[in-house]
Design goal:
By secondary structure, this protein is mainly beta. The chain has 5 helices and 18 strands.
């Protein structure tokens, strides 16, 4: 995997003939009690020292990823636009900084339907963020949740269910990664002998959840399943020629995983 260029809010990479662009939507600050021990017990004074806080809170990057294969432009997640915290909503600007137009995006696929992943398909001015959108893919089990979002009502007749094994393009395949959300989905990009797993919210706090993948997140729909999925995907992604991309890994959110001391270590690229 080769880095091509970057700026403050985007970073462009090549995997063989496929281009992947990390796009920064912004960040969100969360209380450290969102991190959970087994049994849904929040961290408190026992929070490990390696977990950095900003004004007493966890700072989570919010990233999306654009895959360009041939003439297909596939956006994985869309950020929050102006629907949540004012520290988010940079995705369209990042897209422009990378030399792309909103009209270039033909497919948007969601890892899951939490607000920092889906609301960006409506721009801050209320227009369609991607006016040439012809495929909107929502994990099948989360379509009822998507349909409850009043902001996104205009898209209800346009969304299609996304199932395990679905091929978005010759190099991009959807894989179930349930736990954080009922239909949580990852996307594997494979080309020229390398793979990139765009895994959504498998990890929220990289400073602890790689070394201790058993640590869960308050908002995981099923913490035991989220833990099992994280351990499974980390084990798989620790193989040679494998990379991961995460919605909440520090921007640009792409790196490798190595096994270390019974856990894992994240190595940004």
């Amino acid at each position: 995997m080769k880095k091509l260029d970057s700026a403050k809010d985007f970073a462009r990479y090549a995997i063989g003939e496929v281009v992947v662009i990390a796009l920064r939507d912004g960040y969100v600050d969360m209380p450290p009690t969102r991190l959970r021990h087994a049994g849904d017990r929040p961290f408190g004074a026992d929070l490990p020292q390696q977990v950095a806080l900003v004004d007493g809170k966890l700072r989570l990057s919010v990233n999306a990823f654009l895959i360009i294969e041939g003439d297909q432009h596939i956006l994985i997640d869309a950020g929050a636009a102006n629907a949540w915290e004012p520290t988010m909503g940079s995705l369209l600007g990042a897209l422009g900084d990378a030399g792309l137009a909103r009209e270039d995006i033909g497919t948007v696929a969601f890892t899951h339907t939490h607000e920092d992943h889906i609301n960006g398909i409506v721009a801050a001015d209320g227009s369609d963020a991607f006016p040439k959108l012809d495929r909107l893919l929502v994990p099948k089990d989360e379509i009822p949740l998507f349909d409850k979002e009043a902001r996104l009502a205009r898209f209800r007749q346009r969304r299609s269910p996304l199932e395990n094994g679905f091929k978005l393009s010759p190099s991009v395949t959807a894989h179930q990664a349930h736990g954080h959300a009922v239909g949580h989905t990852a996307f594997e990009v494979t080309n020229a002998g390398e793979s990139l797993l765009i895994w959504g919210d498998v990890v929220h706090v990289p400073s602890i959840q790689f070394a201790r993948p058993e640590v869960t997140w308050e908002y995981d729909a099923n913490q035991a399943e989220a833990r099992s999925t994280r351990e499974r995907l980390m084990r798989r992604a620790s193989k040679p020629s494998f990379f991961v991309a995460g919605a909440h890994l520090d921007f640009p959110g792409i790196g490798r995983i190595a096994e270390e001391d019974g856990g894992y270590r994240y190595i940004p690229i």
